[in-house]
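Field reference: sequence -> structure
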Amino acid sequence: MKSIFQFLKNFLIVLFLIVLIILFSTLSMEKVKAFFNGFLGNGVDYQPLQDTGAVISDYQARVIAEGLYSAMYKVGTDEDRIYSLLSGVNQGDFAKIYNAFGSRYYLEYTGTWADSVLGVKIDLIGWLENELTESELKHLSNITKGVF
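Structure field:
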């Protein structure tokens, strides 16, 4: 009796997977991405910011942007590293870092990086808002003197 239920369970799982494969194979990749984007969120659109008043170089901005990505791209966020990297930046510096970060694929469901199939492209602000709690965002605002 137990083996019959196990067989039915496995059969239904395989049937479900076949239906999903057929369904998604008939849809364009854009429709599949739209399905997941609607389920997981729409992200934040990247628009370059004016970096007037920045005192850091383009290279420094890229290093900080990569450090921020490194602190957020996997499961678990290194909040202290984020605070350290952004501590004391002015508005122009943040804009330069933001521009260097650009937009990157993010999977809200897992809170990690993603590929272009399941991920949603979001900017640095979107990444920070997804990775940090409200109190952590307030702390970030304090250490950046209201820049963020």
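Note: The longest helix spans residues 2-26.
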